[in-house]
Amino acid sequence: MDYKSEQQSEKESLSLLYECTNEYISLGDNSFKIFIDNKLKKISFYILFEYTEKYPDEAPLYKIVDVKNLSISLIKNVENQIQETIENNLGYSMIYNIVENIRTYLSEDIEEKSMYDEMIERQPKSNKINDSDNSSDDSEKDLDNYENVLELKELCEEKYRVSEEEFEAWRKEFYKDIFLQMKKNNNSENPTGRELFEKEKISILDPEFDEGEPKWCNEELFCDIDLDD
Q1: Which residue in 9, 24, 129, 229 is deepest, having the highest Cβ count within 10 Å?
Q2: What are the boundaries of the region Disordered (predicted)?
Q3: What are phi and psi of 144, to 5 degrees?
Q4: Distance in angstroms (rounded) separating the CA atoms of residues 94 and 129
């Protein structure tokens, strides 16, 4: 077996698999490290690999480095998993199998606790209760502040606001002006706006009216308009 060629081929494959996610770091011709983490358990570390002269017929050298939140017992179990995978894959490229087996192992419901888990368990219950109370108080304060902002926010200045009565008076004048303008623009060959109004109570605001397609509407909308002024 051409060991150098086999090792180089595996390194290139690992680089393509893991380097794009910044999980693979090359350290030399025969060495590299691969990042492994479990976000749920808040643990992470690198496995540093170094090829021996006759790898893969020989086991690679390996070491767990840059450890974060791994207990000693969990490190021991990870090393046992690595050793077991090596024994099952001697004679074949095995780094990928080692990495993925460890990731699977960490994602399972393992009994070993991370240092983060142990720290949470050691935290006094009184502190947990206080933290919960403080969180609840903060949420209530945020809600009160949000409601206060809504109360203080104005849609427009008071001087620009109109009452319902003022709007109704404006509406009457608006329609009245439109009908009067329509009467002036109509010639003798066409019916006046009043005649059309008295006949079927058309909606002169519909744009289709200019195209000869009037739409009819409820006469109660115009019952309070004085057209004789």
Answers
A1: 24
A2: 122-143
A3: -65, -45
A4: 48
